[in-house]
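cron nightly-structures :: item 1 of 1
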Amino acid sequence: MFHYLRRLRTHIYSAFIRPRMQAAAKGVLLDYPAAQLTGLSRVKVGRGTAFGRNVRLCTWGQGSITVGCHCHFGPDCHISAVNAIEIGDNLLTGSNVLIVDNNHGDTTPAQLALPPVERPIVSKGPVRIGHNVWLGQNVCILSGVSIGDGAVVGANSVVTHDVPPATVVSGVPARPIKAHAE
C-alpha cells in the first residue's frame, strides 16, 4: 500500500511541475520533494525521464537544460546552467551527481580577493552528455566538458576534460581506464 501511495504522490507532484517547464514530454516524473527548481521555463525534458527525490534543476540568466528521453537521475542530483547543458537519451546516474556549466569567479588574484558569493558567475562553456551514458554515484561534471556516447564515469570522479565515446573514466580528475573501439 505504501508503495502505491508513494507512486501516486510522485505522479501528482509531477503533474504540478511539468507545466512550469519549457517542454516536458509524457511520462516525465519528479519524485517528491524537489530540493530546488529555478528557471524551469528554460528546461526541456524528454519522455520517460525520471528524477529522484531532492533533485535541483536550476537555470540562471539565459542558461538552458535539455534532457533526452528515458533518462534516470538518482536522488540528490543537481543540474545547474548559466550557459547550456544538453543530455542525450538513456542517461543513468547514481545518487548525488552534480552537472554544472558554471562557477563563482575565476582564479585571478583580483577574483580570489573577493568573497566567493560576490564573485561573478562564469562558464567555460556548455556541458554535453551523449546517449547511453552511465554516471556513478557522487560524480561531478564541470563546465566545458563533452561526454561521448556509451561512456561510463566511475563513482566519486570529477570530470574536467572531454570523455571520448565508449570510454570508462575514473578518478579526480577523471582519466581513461578502459576504452572500446567503436
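cron nightly-structures :: done
Residues 2-17 form the longest helix (16 residues).
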